[in-house]
Predict the 3D structure of the following.
Amino acid sequence: MDEKLVQRLEAAVTRLEAVTVGFRGGGGPTESGAEAASDPAIVAHDDLTAEFVGRVSVAAGKIGGKVLEVTKILEEAFSVQKELLVKVKQSQKPNLAGLAEFLKPLNEVIMKANSLTEGRRSDFFNHLKTAADSLGALAWIGYTGKDCGMSLPIAHVEESWQMAEFYNNKILVEYKTKDPNHVEWAKALKELYVPGLRDYVKRFYPLGPVWNPTGKTTVSAPPKASGPSAPAPPCAPPASLFSSEPSQASSSRPKEGMAAVFQEISSGKPVTSGLKKVTDDMKTKNRADRTGVVGLSKKESRVSSPSFSKAGPPKLELQIGRKWVVENQIGKKNLVIDDCDAKQSVYIFGCNDSVLKIQGKVNNITIDKCTKMGVVFSDVVAACEVVNCNSVEVQCQGSAPTISVDNTAGCQLYLSKDALGASITTAKSSEINVMVPGAESDGDWWGACIATAIYSYIEGWAVCNNPSFSLWRVIEQLFICFNSSSSSSS
């Protein structure tokens, strides 16, 4: 009995000491601003701002302009979050209206960032959108429980950053080879939220902000109460139920809408008196200028422009110094690319009835969705690809290690002596023919067809196919017959 009594007395003394420490002369027990600022959670928030927000600010200072402006708003938002965390430790948990008033400063900063993304698009729109969307992660401080409609603080921070990461990745792709300052800014911003803010919330506020049950009450501004108003005047007495005369107001007011239409119809007046009479010569069947035969001379014929495609305007340009783009060329037989190097690629798309000559060595050539297109090139480092085409001709005057034909109907491949070691891969294609020069310098060209989905390559003066060698036998016999005929003619 004595031990239990001592334990109860110690528990009571502990509670009294806790109340005495938190008591202040001007009011109830609360936590001062100095003590709240020295709380480990607040100190950790200062470290978070100094380390991660500082890195974002340094990178933004190198860029300047709108990026620096939105970064300053970001700094202001984290400063407001710190002030709210200090108030959380000094205040009791508010109701819904009080919480909205409590979060009003943070909401104003977020709206300021969103306003920068509106209106005319800036050159740094992806930067502005990333920063504005990421500030939604700071709303974790409004989590009040599982029924508040929000995810847990840790999940809320991650989900908010995932929304902003879409635009952040665009920055990384766009400026990867342009400006490292933008890449540094994007990476620093991501580390601010993941893992920076996420780990901070996970360590100190995994279940939301911890309010002070003995702190001051946070109450939203009550609505302005209106003063005592004078009593409303009594209603006008209704018309006498026994009066046979209708009221003046109802009789003097004109009827509107369909009521007026029915009133005029029931009045007995000739309602069609104002309509115009249609005579026989005005009827369509009796008009001489209206016949049922459509004249062929008046039919407008549509003539397609020889240099413009429905898909878009024609292009022949070098993009970003690495890729030649040839698009929507129609009826052009003299297209030439002469200023190229081995690091550049050529992409040909949507061309019809045209011829392109590539003078110089390039890295890769792709011919996509072209019809009756001819391509002549010197050398290619990687491969020449023909995809989704119809009736195209490709001539290699130099060397090409790989030629790929995919989903194409009709393709003529002309290979020089230096390109006889090329490997030819076809799939889902038909009418693929390979033409190679004869043994003599002035000899005739000879050709053979290539089977579908067969790996083919030139060895000696024949086309070899794997894994089936049936076509190889046919080409070998064809080559023997060709040599025998050449020798007999000589």
Q: What stands out?
A: The longest strand covers residues 352-368. DSSP finds twelve helices and 14 strands in the chain. Residues 369 and 389 are 5 Å apart (CA to CA).
